[in-house]
Design a protein that fits this description.
By secondary structure, the chain is an all-alpha fold. It is built from 18 helices and two strands.
């Protein structure tokens, strides 16, 4: 079966399940992106095939289907950035393919005792150093691509040493060397804390990038004409209004801060988390996770209001979020808590 057909068949087997964005992301990282790994470690997969695989993964993430349904909320390049840099941590498949082939360069540079190395050295390279090797026109397509990979990695070697050290080449290091790193985002630890429910983290990530489909964006795309906020009906719905200015949202945040005993503006949580040293590390984690949960619930309440469904009162939303965060904390915690933290947590229950 063709590689893209295998991936498509796997997605269709999941089609009947009501998966959240976070669930689809987990499947992409754990299943779809690894189906090609065996072939990627042997030869350079053609760009046409890689583009199809990326399109399938992108469509599945945003619509749950293998075929194109709608425009994605966030560019695929951003999604393929590490979480520390504001992405989703999905691997860039083309770069990962090149990183997997980088092991051949390391084998040749270190003259590893592999049958493939002996064959290439004896038949093709002979007395030529690997960094100066130019493949003949009549050699195989695979060897030409491996030789191109050697040229690509040549800058990373000094006197045949990978990154000027005696350490062994790893695919992870090769991938990091090939991709261009970006500045780390301030909210990375808040967004991807293991104390968060995964679907909370995904929506919070989209909020930080301002890429949720609020009414102002939908109208710009040609869908709808009424800009009025679903939750308050008092102003036009935009990202800033929905999460920072809407009376429903501000009530949620105010009540959450009252329960937690903290004070900060909703859009300055990341700076507070970095500088709020008056709180213990555990308390900062719980406070941040509660804020992520409330952010998710604001978006969820907005969608329920759009469908004319019942929307919980802000006080009930906050209580439920705190309950969920504490339940996840007790399920994961194995350390002894300080008396101060115990009393603080008991005050939240």
């Amino acid at each position: 079966m063709h590689l893209t057909d295998r991936i498509t068949a796997r997605i269709r087997s999941w089609g009947s399940r009501q998966l959240s964005y976070a669930g689809r992301l987990a499947l992409i990282n754990s299943v779809l992106a690894t189906l090609h790994s065996y072939w990627s470690s042997i030869f350079l997969i053609p760009n046409g095939i890689m583009n199809k695989i990326e399109a399938i993964c992108r469509n599945f993430l945003w619509s749950g289907k293998d075929s194109y349904q709608r425009a994605p909320n966030v560019s695929w390049d951003t999604c393929c950035s590490p979480k520390d840099e504001g992405g989703l941590g999905i691997k860039d498949l083309k770069t990962w393919n090149r990183a997997l082939l980088g092991k051949y360069t390391w084998w040749l540079a270190n003259k590893k005792d592999h049958l493939w190395v002996r064959w290439i050295s004896h038949v093709y390279m002979k007395d030529t150093h690997w960094s100066n090797y130019d493949p003949p026109p009549d050699c195989s397509w695979t060897l030409k691509k491996i030789a191109h990979s050697m040229i690509l990695f040549k800058q990373a070697y000094t006197n045949d040493l990978w990154l000027a050290s005696d350490k062994e080449y790893t695919v992870t290091e090769g991938y990091a060397w090939l991709r261009q790193s970006k500045p780390k985002v301030l909210w990375r630890h808040i967004c991807w804390s293991p104390m968060n429910v995964p679907k909370w983290s995904f929506i919070f990530w989209a909020v930080q990038l301002k890429r949720l489909l609020t009414k102002d964006r939908m109208i710009q795309m040609g869908f709808g004409h009424d800009p009025c906020c679903y939750l308050c009906s008092a102003a036009d719905e935009s990202h800033d209004h929905l999460f920072y200015q809407c009376p429903f949202s501000t009530h949620c945040i105010s009540y959450l801060q009252q329960k937690l005993g903290v004070h900060f503006s909703a859009d300055s949580l990341a700076r507070w988390d970095s500088n709020g040293r008056a709180r213990s590390k555990l308390q900062r984690k719980i406070i941040s996770s509660c804020h992520v949960g409330v952010t998710y619930c604001i978006w969820n309440s907005r969608n329920k209001a759009r469908l004319d469904a019942y929307v919980l009162r802000p006080e009930n939303i906050v209580r439920n979020v705190i309950k969920d965060v504490l339940a996840r904390f007790w399920a994961k915690n194995s350390s002894v808590l300080s008396t101060r933290d115990v009393r603080w947590i008991q005050g939240l229950s």
